[in-house]
Amino acid sequence: MTTEILNTLVTGAIWRAEQLDAIGLETESAWTEVSRLEEELARQLPVSAAEGRIARRGAVRAALKAQNFARAQDLVERFAGEDGAPRALRADLREMLKADANGLSEQFPFASKHHKPSEVQMLSNLFLQRGPFWLAAA
Length: 138
Hints:
Elements: H1 3-22, H2 28-44, H3 50-65, H4 69-80, H5 87-107, H6 109-114, H7 117-130, H8 132-137
């Protein structure tokens, strides 16, 4: 698939996710689609190109909007570890994770009193994956 087609698909997927959000519907699957399309763009575009860096940031941002911290973290590790990845890109990607962790700490204040922000992210991700009764049994 060409980058031109992928860019068109990303634009449409972002529009769908934003529209679903605007009317209050579930958006996690829509943002996951955006993240996967951006990841495919990142595969095709080198990290040295501005468009490649934008795709990498977009893949991580969309994974976080999909509330999939594990995916976002995997993408950050992969993209930050690429040969030739600029220091600014690595810092931006890590800052996205940190900002998300701080947001979760505000969303779950009790958890943030007893856990680091990264642990709150992990617990939130487990909660989303396994449901509330798993945390009660843990």
